[in-house]
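Methods — Computational structure assignment.
A single polypeptide chain was analysed. Its primary sequence is given first, followed by the predicted tertiary structure written as structure tokens.
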Amino acid sequence: MKDRGPDRRSGAGRRAVEAGGRPFEGAPLVTCPHCGSTVPAGDFCGHCGAHLASGSRRRRHAYTAVPAEHAVHLSIITLFPHLPHRRGGPFRVALIAGGALVLALAALHLFAPATVAALLALPVVYLMYLYEVEVYESEPWLVVGTTMGIGALLGAAFTTITGGLLSRLVLTGDRTTAFVLAGAVIPVVAQVLMLAGPLFLYLFRSRFREPLDGLAFGAASALGFSLASSLTAFWPLLGGPLVAGGSPLEWAVRLARAGLLVSLVNASTTALVAASAWLHRYDRR
């Protein structure tokens, strides 16, 4: 075999030189401002992991997978899984605007309109999300209407029954039973009822096989349930005077809890449980 000596070349670099082109060159080298090592240019140091532009090793402002994003930031991703991060700004603004509207109306002692705004904020934003992503455009009213409708009917009936039962227990002085009922039985039964709508679609709409389908249906059902349940509970307030007395701060906190926090927790929990069921179907495909 003929020895080509130390100048032997192989691969694409040799062919490029023979063809008159430039040989293959690697990434330019830079010096890491944190550890001083010479490493290939990029977003992070290959030796210590620091951010090359800022020299910060903690790099909270640059997430490894997406350097343009912060490592820690507030983001509601469970309810809007089909929405790209760059398109989530208007929805976050809408949620913040809904909360600000509730505070403003409560400050003006307009508790009935504040109640309506608090209860409708999250369901309206979620419907806007479904319209924006157009995931179920072939039969949107059937899918969304069935899921949210079943949840709303069950929520209104459940709140009416349990509200009267709790009132009777409190009036009779049976506070222990009332505590167990309100703290354990009612939340568990309510969670089961929130899954009724997704279960209907799981059994009779087998073409929806993705786990994200179950997640979306679970969130829609829980939002319908929470909306109807809260409307039933606050109905005496809605039928009262437009301007009412009371502490604006107390009412703002109460409405934010019932309309935003509880709805968000219910929707997130039900969405995850429903997605788990759809994941079982997806695995069997």
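Note: The mean pLDDT is 78.
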